[in-house]
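URGENT: need a sanity check before tomorrow's submission.

F., can you look over the 4-hydroxythreonine-4-phosphate dehydrogenase record below? I want to be sure the sequence and structure line up before it goes out.
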Amino acid sequence: MTRPDFIFMLTRHDRTVENAVNLIEIVRAAGVRHIGFKDIGLPFESLQTLARKIRQSGASTYLEVVSLDCESELRSVRSGIALGVDYLLGGTHVDDALRLLKGTDIRYYPFPGRISGHPSHLEGTEGEIVRSAVDLASRPGVHGLDLLAYRFAGDVPSLMRKVRAAVMGKRVIVAGSIDREERIRAVVSAGADGFTVGTAALDGAFPTSRDLTGQIDYVRMLLSRL
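Structure tokens as predicted:
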């Protein structure tokens, strides 16, 4: 079984934390090679510094869009382009985003399903979400999907398995509320290509040392055993 990428998000409750830049060295020293942040929580100038520091550390950069209206979302897409991130996660106005992203090297992973609220929730039936995933994955310029599986009120393991099976040609990243061993195991079992952890590690949710290094070490240790 291929282990998914562990993407550490410098975020708490869907907002980039104020001390994000100061955490990069800790996260990289703990062995994380994929680091992300959200489009809200810090001014653009600070996001520029953050993205540059992540690149300089040798990690891949991820920007996850959590804006709900089209105008704000496209502003966030433009920010991702200006920041030169490697991956753009999230968003629901896919055709508009694709027009902006055309000609860039950014790999785009929009949200399947209906997204509401902040922090974001995934709405719709399992079948509706799977159909949305298939539709999005079929579009040129969409490299994968950002699935808010644990923001869904239904059978999450089933949803993850069905989305993964339905879009075998594209990558699937599972994001949001992955805060315990059981959920990491389910993500791996479902065949996800990556998953994000942010709030849980920053808040010391995993059953080990509450410092950030200990929390990251726990997740990486768990992955090595699966």
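My own read: The two ends are 8 Å apart (CA to CA). Residues 44-57 form the longest helix (14 residues). If you see anything odd, call me.
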